[in-house]
What does this fold into?
Amino acid sequence: MSNHITRYEGLIASQTFDKVTSKLQKQFVQNLKRLEALKVEVAEAKAFERAVEVQVAKDIAPLHRKYNQRLGDMLLILDSHYGRLTEEENYKLGFYIATMVSQLLASGLQHLQPLYEKYQEYLMSDSQEVDIPSEEEDDDEDIPEEWNEQDNRIFEQVEETLPPITNKTARSIYMELVKEFHPDLESDEEEKLRKTQLMHLITEAYSKNDLYELLKLRMTLITEQEKPQTFIEPQLKRYNKILIKQILFLEKELKDIQTGAYWQFGKGNYKTMDISIITEMNSIKKATKQLEFHKQVLKSKEYVVQFLSNY
It folds into this structure.
């Protein structure tokens, strides 16, 4: 068995290279390890996100629907008091109803559309009263200028390199491997069988557009005939650049998950997820009971006035 195939089998077993000498090689190995770790993190985060999504749909969504329905009923009760209050109280009431109804419409309670149309002018008038900073005003005066410049540079860099690696790049790596390890190019039967097995792995990685595997295969299946100066330096620079793009892409994907709505339920911990969901369920149930109470007492004009004085 040739040395380069021995090194490949060693890589599969230990996920390390037997010879890491140059700075570029070390960077390549570090990038591979970082990418491999990120792939695991993203996969685990997606699995957690899906688990939370299923649990939320099962346990929390029905409670939210019940709460929204009770809130809609309460708004209809408040609507019956409009016009019977002072001008200031009517304004507060109209703005409150319009604000709440706009949220409920987004939740699917379309039967409240007439209520929104009745009070939407309060939202429009409120938006017109918002002070718009003049050109001379600096919205970021409390943020250090150095931080803003650094943030902008990072943002621009991510914008340029963030898109996932295209099939064209994967194809380029794949063709390099095919040229060297395609069994049809081998006359020795034993070597042909061995390369057939290798091509199966290479083709599988390419079919999945898995640049991580393709790059790992390419770097491990370097033949002894290839001199470092003809392959290592230029190719490693190129591959490190590709890996960094993938790392940036996965880092953003992971950040998007961890800042999403579902991540708040346990932040990746399944035990904490159960506790968080139960806590949220109890909170919604408590809030729904409070709405039931408000529905009864808000039939009284005096209580409506008191309610608006606290709004």
